[in-house]
Design goal:
325 residues, mainly alpha, 18 helices
Length: 325
Amino acid sequence: MTIKELNEIIAGYSDDSLRLILKELYKAVPKAQREENKIDELIKNPEDWKKPKKAYAKIPGVKELAIQIDTFVDRAYNGLYIRPNGSVNKKNRSQWRLPVISFVKALQAHAGVTGEDRKTAADAALSLYELMWTARYEAKLFASDEPFEAINFSNVAFFGLVLSLMRGSMPWSDYIREGLELLLMNTMASADRRMSLIQEFVYTINNTELSEITISIGTEMLRKLKKPERQTGRRIIISEVSPYETLVKIIFGCFCMLHEYERGVDFLKEELSYYDEELITHHVLGALIGVRSFDLFMREYEAAVESGITVDRTLENYYDHLSSI
């Protein structure tokens, strides 16, 4: 409720009722908050009480921030936040997330910098993001196994921050290549998170020229990757998607942004040919749902059924739903 509403509600309360409310509210406020806001002083002497001014931490300049991040990253990779040592004391090891939170806020504050400062900020953000990713998926670097959750800043949000700083700090071709490499690094993330990361990146290249550049660079990178071995059987749920498949689906998304959906489907079928027909169909139909190409979804579904391919029940239900509209 608003302060105005509060005043209206308590206007007719008795002194006993107000005392009861005050005691319960006092107990509900954490001690640290009572001290920070000088609640005890307010209660003891309300006539002379002044609301304490909030102290704002000074945001370091870009170069100073980059040095701080580099130092933190180097210490973390050397295991200084996970084991006893003479450089990082026990308290700071347990509170590792606090400097990371301050680094993120400072990077956000520097979002508008240009020139060399922007490149410096982008490099620092990328270095910090890669550290957090490593701590989440590859190595025990902090007390928490969920570092993104510990700083209350998701993998997707952090990735978006890195992309925002990278844009304008390098040529578009370099930005696209860097972005694709970051996405290929995230193959161990959950399916929903992988899709969110891809969407975060694709949103930034949502025009004809950049989509065509991404297809060109992505295809070049694809040819340097080893194509997965032939796979058969009904393996619909896959815990880790290969970098190859991730890149294929990003390129498919770019074809769709160019409104070349059928070309994108042909590309998917060709590049995912290491799967059997049933799994290829599953991927194609799922991808078409993702880009909301419902007419083509229905055509591909009907062609698959006519060819005798067994379609997953979820996709069958989706087809029935579309048919009933």
